[in-house]
Amino acid sequence: MIDLIKKLPKAELHLHIEGSLEPELMFKLAQKNSIEIPYNTVEDVKNAYDFSDLQSFLDIYYAGAKVLVTKQDFYDLTWEYILKCKQDNIIHTEIFFDPQTHTARGVAFETVILGIKEALDDAKKKFGISSSIIMCFLRHMSEDEAFKTLEESIPFKKYIIGVGLDSSEIGHPPSKFEEVFKAAKKEGFKIVAHAGEEADVSYIFEALDLLKVQRIDHGVQSIKSKELMQRLKEEQIPLTVCPNSNIELKVFKNYKEHNIKKLLDFGLLVTVNSDDPAYFKGYLNQNFINLYKNLDLSKDDIVNLVKNSFKASFISEELKEKYLQKVDLSLS
Questions:
Q1: What DSSP character marks residue 275?
Q2: Burial 296-319 (b: 16+ CB within 10 A, else e)
Q3: What is the pTM of this model?
Q4: 317 has catalytic annotation
Q5: 169, 197, 198, 206: which is the annotated catalytic residue?
Q6: CA gap 109, 98 in Å, rounded
Q7: Which of 180, 197, 244, 292 is most buried as measured by Cβ atoms within 10 A of its Cβ?
Q8: pLDDT 10s digits, 247-266
């Protein structure tokens, strides 16, 4: 079954590009850009990756992001992730980036987006990997600051397919950003939001009803509401679940307790993703392998999860069909 997981072509829909910053690249860029980081060795960094909750992870995540300064840095960061895509047989990826993490440090929006975009263009040319970029607002910051970021994005709108909402979930409900998401929708952006990883189901309802999201990022708390589960099933609203993240951030005590199989068995459009793989001990295939080893997933379950990743993506129906056929061909 592990060979099957590795062989299947996949899409990844919940990946923070800043969260793919491996310790080795962090050190290399820190040295190049003369940025001080609170670690002496790569091993020190890895030892720091012991999180008690989302906030304890974010503290390290933002510290690491400081080393990203030039367009080439963002290119290198993205290219390293693309090499992991090739390794894990990811043929389509929709990546998040957090412009506010960088513009707040004086790095221009243009520097960030062009570095990422050029790497993704090269991924298409060299490996045939298709991709889209989703810009996230940081929910621990104000809606006014999110509006400013939205305005900064407009000259680069052709490179960005959608907007999302990430960072510290508890205490920052989707309703805080209702107006900026309305404005983003008017600009033609697709709409997604992190909801229901740590916070309760009210955050998922708000994301659906106020932000009008087309996908819920995480959403594992939805199982606590029969009404919500039924709605997600009927409307086939995708959930981009990130198993390793859920374990590392103590949303579940261990893999045996993870509810992804229950969500799948109920008929939800669930997908598997790696979230911040440099920090959460594994890229996409490792997330699948961990699920398989702990939850007794069948071959059909794995194939359904893989097919869901394409069905839930923002690619054209024609390309979806092409990729789904690739999945079937890999099974024969």
A1: B
A2: ebeeebbbbbbbbbbbbbbbeeee
A3: 0.96
A4: no
A5: 197
A6: 10
A7: 244
A8: 999 999 999 999 999 999 99
